[in-house]
Amino acid sequence: MKLKTLFLAGLSCSPGASILPPCEYWQVEPPLNYSDVLYAGWNQIPVEKEVLIYNGSLIGRTYAHHPQLLAVGETVYLVHSSAVIDEDSMGMELWGAMSHDGGYTWTPSHSLLPPALLPNQTNVANFSYWCNEAIWQRAIGGLAVLEVDSEIWGVGETTDFFCWGDIGSGTRGAGRIARQLSSVDGMPIGDPCWLNQNNWTYIELYNETVYGTKYGMKFCDKAADMNAQLVEPTKVPAWSAWLYNDEFYAANNWSSLQEVTHAVWIEQSDGPGYWQRFWRDISPTNNSMRVWWEITFDKEGKSWYPVIEEEYGNKVGQFFNVPDETNI
């Protein structure tokens, strides 16, 4: 088995290696065209129809990202980030829309999780302002849409940026917030509630925002069910408070990784099946500019992140000849 022996070889790429080395693993036809930074020289999947769901500039919001989808039959739910100015900037919210016809038509996108602002704060300011004032930027990004007991829930990840003084800059995670969505029009039902919290939740004063003063910082009644789904290999989100507050290093022990993909189960005729997924290198220096991959033979996915949260000892290897152009 090529993938299994790849780990045992210590990710060797020497000419004398008897197994398939990482630098030769990604062999495809047609070959990758590295000068085509958008499509890598491959023909794209035909587009049946392009549908505009959200145009933030029409309502004074210039940033949108982190889309997450859930299809329940012909009904499709979407959540995404929406900010007035920058990515992960103060006041970024979770917005959402839904379709009843498989994605051809959509409801207008609308706010699901409101901005986490203190009473004296506004989201109409850029990074420079908050950094100069040494103020935490509390942002809520799109993370997942889940179905629990026939209920639909939109989930946001807190992504909170700091940039001041001797400590420099970085991101901390204060936990995940969820809200039930209507199966009729996708509008929020009931109050926002938390799937998890940590010490940063209160250091960053979420309890003094609307999440505390209006909604009481309460946990979701179905938090355990949603948290259980978010560790399943096919549903593990790209971000988490642990990834923000700690480090996840690749097998080389120095490449810092985030933004993991959902895993795909691969059956094999000559051996056991395995889960495979990919990671992004976010190292601030000496970034590999490459995609990283990981496999596990554990069908339940209990042998890797997020069931296991360890900074080192992770068996994540590098696709040496597959560039990550998002880092350019």
TrEMBL record:
Signal peptide: 1-19
The UniProt record lists the keyword Signal: yes
Keywords, alphabetical: Signal
Protein name (Swiss-Prot/TrEMBL): Uncharacterized protein
